[in-house]
Amino acid sequence: MGLADPAYRVVGMAYDFYALMLTFLAVTLAYLGYIDQARARMDEALSEARRLGQTLTLVHGLNLANWIDWLTRAPDVHQREFLSLSGEHGFPHYLSWALAFRGRSLVACGLAQEGFALLTQCLAQLRTAGAVVNTPMLLTWLAESHGMVGQLDEALNCLAEAARIVETTKERVTEAEWLHRVPGDLLQATGDRSGAERHYRQAIAVAGQQNAKLLQLRASTSLARLWRDQGKRAEAHDLLSPVYSWFTEGFDAPVLEEAKALLDELA
Protein backbone atom coordinates (compact mmCIF):
# COMPACT_ATOMS: atom_id res chain seq x y z
CA MET A 1 0.00 0.00 0.00
CA GLY A 2 3.04 2.24 0.43
CA LEU A 3 3.22 2.46 -3.36
CA ALA A 4 0.50 5.10 -3.14
CA ASP A 5 3.29 7.50 -2.13
CA PRO A 6 3.72 10.03 -5.00
CA ALA A 7 7.45 9.29 -4.96
CA TYR A 8 6.72 5.91 -6.53
CA ARG A 9 4.21 7.19 -9.09
CA VAL A 10 6.54 8.35 -11.83
CA VAL A 11 5.03 9.95 -14.92
CA GLY A 12 6.02 8.13 -18.07
CA MET A 13 6.36 4.66 -16.56
CA ALA A 14 4.62 1.86 -18.44
CA TYR A 15 2.66 0.88 -15.31
CA ASP A 16 1.43 2.69 -12.26
CA PHE A 17 2.64 0.36 -9.53
CA TYR A 18 0.03 1.38 -6.98
CA ALA A 19 -2.86 0.62 -9.34
CA LEU A 20 -1.08 -2.55 -10.41
CA MET A 21 -0.82 -3.69 -6.79
CA LEU A 22 -4.52 -2.99 -6.27
CA THR A 23 -5.46 -5.34 -9.11
CA PHE A 24 -3.50 -8.22 -7.57
CA LEU A 25 -4.94 -7.43 -4.15
CA ALA A 26 -8.44 -7.51 -5.66
CA VAL A 27 -7.94 -10.97 -7.16
CA THR A 28 -6.46 -12.26 -3.89
CA LEU A 29 -9.42 -10.93 -1.92
CA ALA A 30 -11.80 -12.64 -4.36
CA TYR A 31 -10.14 -16.02 -3.88
CA LEU A 32 -10.26 -15.53 -0.11
CA GLY A 33 -14.01 -14.93 -0.35
CA TYR A 34 -14.16 -11.17 0.26
CA ILE A 35 -16.07 -10.35 -2.90
CA ASP A 36 -17.21 -6.79 -2.12
CA GLN A 37 -13.72 -5.81 -0.99
CA ALA A 38 -12.31 -7.33 -4.17
CA ARG A 39 -14.72 -5.31 -6.30
CA ALA A 40 -13.90 -2.11 -4.41
CA ARG A 41 -10.14 -2.57 -4.86
CA MET A 42 -10.57 -3.33 -8.54
CA ASP A 43 -12.81 -0.31 -9.05
CA GLU A 44 -10.17 1.83 -7.34
CA ALA A 45 -7.45 0.38 -9.55
CA LEU A 46 -9.38 1.01 -12.76
CA SER A 47 -10.29 4.51 -11.62
CA GLU A 48 -6.65 5.32 -10.85
CA ALA A 49 -5.54 4.01 -14.24
CA ARG A 50 -8.14 6.16 -16.00
CA ARG A 51 -7.26 9.23 -13.93
CA LEU A 52 -3.58 8.88 -14.77
CA GLY A 53 -4.17 8.07 -18.42
CA GLN A 54 -2.25 4.81 -17.96
CA THR A 55 -3.62 2.68 -20.80
CA LEU A 56 -1.40 -0.33 -20.18
CA THR A 57 -2.27 -0.32 -16.47
CA LEU A 58 -5.96 -0.03 -17.37
CA VAL A 59 -5.80 -2.96 -19.80
CA HIS A 60 -3.99 -5.08 -17.22
CA GLY A 61 -6.67 -4.18 -14.68
CA LEU A 62 -9.46 -5.07 -17.09
CA ASN A 63 -7.81 -8.45 -17.61
CA LEU A 64 -7.93 -9.23 -13.89
CA ALA A 65 -11.40 -7.68 -13.58
CA ASN A 66 -12.58 -10.27 -16.10
CA TRP A 67 -10.87 -12.91 -13.96
CA ILE A 68 -12.89 -11.83 -10.91
CA ASP A 69 -16.08 -11.85 -12.99
CA TRP A 70 -15.28 -15.45 -13.96
CA LEU A 71 -14.54 -16.46 -10.36
CA THR A 72 -17.82 -15.01 -9.11
CA ARG A 73 -19.83 -16.06 -12.19
CA ALA A 74 -20.73 -12.40 -12.69
CA PRO A 75 -21.77 -10.90 -16.04
CA ASP A 76 -18.78 -10.04 -18.23
CA VAL A 77 -19.17 -6.29 -17.86
CA HIS A 78 -15.47 -5.60 -18.47
CA GLN A 79 -15.09 -7.80 -21.52
CA ARG A 80 -15.95 -5.39 -24.31
CA GLU A 81 -13.65 -2.60 -23.10
CA PHE A 82 -10.83 -5.07 -22.49
CA LEU A 83 -11.13 -6.42 -26.02
CA SER A 84 -11.43 -2.97 -27.58
CA LEU A 85 -8.45 -1.37 -25.82
CA SER A 86 -6.20 -4.41 -26.27
CA GLY A 87 -6.79 -4.37 -30.01
CA GLU A 88 -6.73 -0.60 -30.41
CA HIS A 89 -3.36 -0.20 -28.68
CA GLY A 90 -1.72 -3.30 -30.11
CA PHE A 91 -1.17 -5.32 -26.92
CA PRO A 92 -1.00 -8.87 -28.35
CA HIS A 93 -0.70 -10.68 -25.02
CA TYR A 94 -3.73 -8.93 -23.54
CA LEU A 95 -5.64 -9.23 -26.82
CA SER A 96 -5.18 -13.00 -26.66
CA TRP A 97 -6.64 -13.06 -23.18
CA ALA A 98 -9.48 -10.72 -24.17
CA LEU A 99 -10.43 -13.16 -26.93
CA ALA A 100 -10.08 -16.04 -24.46
CA PHE A 101 -12.56 -14.47 -22.05
CA ARG A 102 -14.89 -13.89 -24.99
CA GLY A 103 -14.53 -17.54 -25.98
CA ARG A 104 -15.26 -18.69 -22.44
CA SER A 105 -18.42 -16.57 -22.40
CA LEU A 106 -19.60 -18.13 -25.64
CA VAL A 107 -19.04 -21.62 -24.22
CA ALA A 108 -20.95 -20.67 -21.07
CA CYS A 109 -23.85 -19.51 -23.26
CA GLY A 110 -23.93 -22.87 -25.01
CA LEU A 111 -22.07 -21.77 -28.14
CA ALA A 112 -19.37 -24.40 -27.74
CA GLN A 113 -18.04 -24.42 -31.31
CA GLU A 114 -17.69 -20.63 -31.54
CA GLY A 115 -16.08 -20.46 -28.13
CA PHE A 116 -13.79 -23.37 -28.92
CA ALA A 117 -12.49 -21.62 -32.04
CA LEU A 118 -11.55 -18.50 -30.08
CA LEU A 119 -9.98 -20.45 -27.23
CA THR A 120 -7.90 -22.53 -29.63
CA GLN A 121 -6.73 -19.40 -31.40
CA CYS A 122 -5.76 -17.75 -28.12
CA LEU A 123 -3.85 -20.76 -26.85
CA ALA A 124 -1.88 -20.94 -30.11
CA GLN A 125 -1.04 -17.24 -29.91
CA LEU A 126 0.14 -17.47 -26.32
CA ARG A 127 2.26 -20.52 -27.05
CA THR A 128 3.85 -18.81 -30.03
CA ALA A 129 4.81 -15.96 -27.71
CA GLY A 130 6.25 -18.43 -25.19
CA ALA A 131 3.60 -17.75 -22.56
CA VAL A 132 2.95 -20.45 -19.96
CA VAL A 133 1.41 -18.66 -16.96
CA ASN A 134 -2.34 -19.24 -16.66
CA THR A 135 -2.51 -21.47 -19.74
CA PRO A 136 -4.04 -24.26 -17.60
CA MET A 137 -7.10 -22.03 -17.34
CA LEU A 138 -7.41 -21.92 -21.13
CA LEU A 139 -7.01 -25.68 -21.31
CA THR A 140 -9.75 -26.08 -18.69
CA TRP A 141 -12.10 -23.88 -20.71
CA LEU A 142 -11.25 -25.91 -23.82
CA ALA A 143 -12.06 -29.07 -21.88
CA GLU A 144 -15.46 -27.65 -20.96
CA SER A 145 -16.19 -26.82 -24.60
CA HIS A 146 -15.21 -30.36 -25.66
CA GLY A 147 -17.43 -31.76 -22.91
CA MET A 148 -20.43 -29.77 -24.10
CA VAL A 149 -20.34 -31.50 -27.49
CA GLY A 150 -19.64 -34.96 -26.09
CA GLN A 151 -15.92 -35.12 -26.92
CA LEU A 152 -14.87 -36.62 -23.60
CA ASP A 153 -11.48 -37.97 -24.72
CA GLU A 154 -10.45 -34.55 -26.04
CA ALA A 155 -11.70 -32.91 -22.84
CA LEU A 156 -9.68 -35.30 -20.68
CA ASN A 157 -6.59 -34.69 -22.83
CA CYS A 158 -6.89 -30.94 -22.23
CA LEU A 159 -7.21 -31.52 -18.49
CA ALA A 160 -4.23 -33.87 -18.47
CA GLU A 161 -2.12 -31.23 -20.20
CA ALA A 162 -3.29 -28.61 -17.71
CA ALA A 163 -2.25 -30.93 -14.87
CA ARG A 164 1.20 -31.44 -16.39
CA ILE A 165 1.73 -27.69 -16.63
CA VAL A 166 0.61 -27.16 -13.03
CA GLU A 167 2.99 -29.86 -11.81
CA THR A 168 5.86 -28.30 -13.78
CA THR A 169 5.26 -24.65 -12.90
CA LYS A 170 3.68 -25.12 -9.44
CA GLU A 171 1.04 -22.58 -10.45
CA ARG A 172 -1.56 -23.82 -7.98
CA VAL A 173 -3.65 -20.74 -7.32
CA THR A 174 -6.69 -22.23 -9.08
CA GLU A 175 -5.79 -25.90 -8.69
CA ALA A 176 -9.08 -26.77 -6.99
CA GLU A 177 -10.97 -25.56 -10.05
CA TRP A 178 -8.64 -26.58 -12.87
CA LEU A 179 -7.59 -30.04 -11.70
CA HIS A 180 -10.57 -31.18 -9.64
CA ARG A 181 -13.94 -29.40 -9.85
CA VAL A 182 -14.09 -29.13 -13.65
CA PRO A 183 -12.97 -32.76 -14.14
CA GLY A 184 -15.71 -33.67 -11.68
CA ASP A 185 -18.28 -31.89 -13.83
CA LEU A 186 -17.09 -33.75 -16.92
CA LEU A 187 -17.26 -37.13 -15.19
CA GLN A 188 -20.72 -36.38 -13.82
CA ALA A 189 -21.91 -35.52 -17.32
CA THR A 190 -20.84 -39.00 -18.46
CA GLY A 191 -22.65 -40.68 -15.56
CA ASP A 192 -19.51 -41.45 -13.52
CA ARG A 193 -20.90 -40.13 -10.26
CA SER A 194 -18.34 -41.83 -8.02
CA GLY A 195 -15.50 -40.33 -10.03
CA ALA A 196 -17.16 -36.93 -9.95
CA GLU A 197 -17.58 -37.13 -6.19
CA ARG A 198 -13.89 -37.96 -5.70
CA HIS A 199 -12.89 -34.91 -7.72
CA TYR A 200 -15.34 -32.62 -5.92
CA ARG A 201 -14.06 -33.81 -2.55
CA GLN A 202 -10.48 -33.17 -3.65
CA ALA A 203 -11.42 -29.70 -4.90
CA ILE A 204 -12.97 -28.90 -1.52
CA ALA A 205 -9.89 -30.19 0.31
CA VAL A 206 -7.41 -28.25 -1.84
CA ALA A 207 -9.43 -25.03 -1.62
CA GLY A 208 -9.67 -25.47 2.16
CA GLN A 209 -5.90 -25.89 2.49
CA GLN A 210 -5.39 -22.69 0.50
CA ASN A 211 -8.09 -20.70 2.33
CA ALA A 212 -9.63 -20.15 -1.10
CA LYS A 213 -13.18 -19.83 0.20
CA LEU A 214 -14.63 -18.89 -3.16
CA LEU A 215 -13.29 -22.04 -4.81
CA GLN A 216 -14.40 -24.07 -1.81
CA LEU A 217 -17.93 -22.73 -2.29
CA ARG A 218 -17.92 -23.55 -6.00
CA ALA A 219 -16.77 -27.12 -5.34
CA SER A 220 -19.17 -27.60 -2.42
CA THR A 221 -22.07 -26.41 -4.57
CA SER A 222 -21.14 -28.93 -7.26
CA LEU A 223 -20.96 -31.80 -4.77
CA ALA A 224 -24.19 -30.72 -3.08
CA ARG A 225 -25.98 -30.80 -6.45
CA LEU A 226 -24.63 -34.28 -7.08
CA TRP A 227 -25.85 -35.51 -3.70
CA ARG A 228 -29.23 -33.83 -4.22
CA ASP A 229 -29.64 -35.75 -7.47
CA GLN A 230 -28.79 -38.95 -5.62
CA GLY A 231 -31.48 -38.26 -3.03
CA LYS A 232 -29.01 -37.35 -0.28
CA ARG A 233 -30.63 -34.01 0.43
CA ALA A 234 -29.75 -33.77 4.13
CA GLU A 235 -26.10 -34.55 3.47
CA ALA A 236 -26.03 -32.00 0.66
CA HIS A 237 -27.49 -29.30 2.89
CA ASP A 238 -25.10 -30.08 5.74
CA LEU A 239 -22.14 -29.89 3.38
CA LEU A 240 -23.02 -26.58 1.74
CA SER A 241 -24.58 -24.69 4.63
CA PRO A 242 -21.44 -24.01 6.71
CA VAL A 243 -19.43 -22.99 3.64
CA TYR A 244 -22.10 -20.54 2.53
CA SER A 245 -22.60 -19.25 6.08
CA TRP A 246 -18.93 -18.28 6.28
CA PHE A 247 -19.49 -15.46 3.75
CA THR A 248 -20.30 -12.00 5.05
CA GLU A 249 -20.41 -10.01 1.81
CA GLY A 250 -20.94 -10.31 -1.93
CA PHE A 251 -24.37 -11.90 -1.64
CA ASP A 252 -25.44 -10.44 -5.01
CA ALA A 253 -22.66 -12.35 -6.77
CA PRO A 254 -24.13 -15.18 -8.88
CA VAL A 255 -21.83 -17.75 -7.27
CA LEU A 256 -23.39 -16.99 -3.88
CA GLU A 257 -26.91 -16.64 -5.27
CA GLU A 258 -26.65 -20.11 -6.83
CA ALA A 259 -25.48 -21.62 -3.53
CA LYS A 260 -28.28 -19.88 -1.63
CA ALA A 261 -30.91 -21.08 -4.09
CA LEU A 262 -29.65 -24.63 -3.75
CA LEU A 263 -29.71 -24.39 0.05
CA ASP A 264 -33.27 -23.08 -0.02
CA GLU A 265 -34.28 -25.99 -2.25
CA LEU A 266 -32.58 -28.51 0.03
CA ALA A 267 -34.20 -27.03 3.14
Please provide a written account of the structure:
The chain is mostly helical and 267 residues long. Helices cover 76% and strands 0% of the residues. The chain has 13 helices and no strands. Helix 1 packs antiparallel against helix 2, helix 3 runs antiparallel to helix 4 and helix 6 packs antiparallel against helix 7. The longest helix is centred in the first third of the chain and has 18 residues.
Shape: globular
Determine the strand fraction and express it as a percent band.
under 5%
Structural class: mainly alpha
Helical coverage, percent range: over 70%
Summarize the helix and strand pattern as letters: HHHHHHHHHHHHH
Task: State the low-pLDDT regions, or none.
Answer: none
Mean pLDDT: 95
What's the end-to-end separation, in Å? 44 Å
The count of helical stretches stands at 13
The main pleated sheet reads as: none
According to DSSP, the number of beta strands is: 0
- Cα Rg: 19 Å
Short description:
With 267 residues, the chain is an all-alpha fold. It has a domain at 1-90. The chain is built from 13 helices and no strands.
Record keyword descriptors for this entry.
single chain; about 75% helix
Q: Which secondary structure elements does this structure contain, and how are they paired or packed?
A:
Blueprint: H1 17-32, H2 35-52, H3 55-72, H4 79-88, H5 92-108, H6 112-128, H7 135-148, H8 152-169, H9 175-189, H10 193-209, H11 213-229, H12 233-246, H13 254-266
Helix pairs in contact: 1-2, 1-3, 2-3, 3-4, 3-5, 4-5, 5-6, 6-7, 7-8, 7-9, 8-9, 9-10, 9-11, 10-11, 11-12, 11-13, 12-13
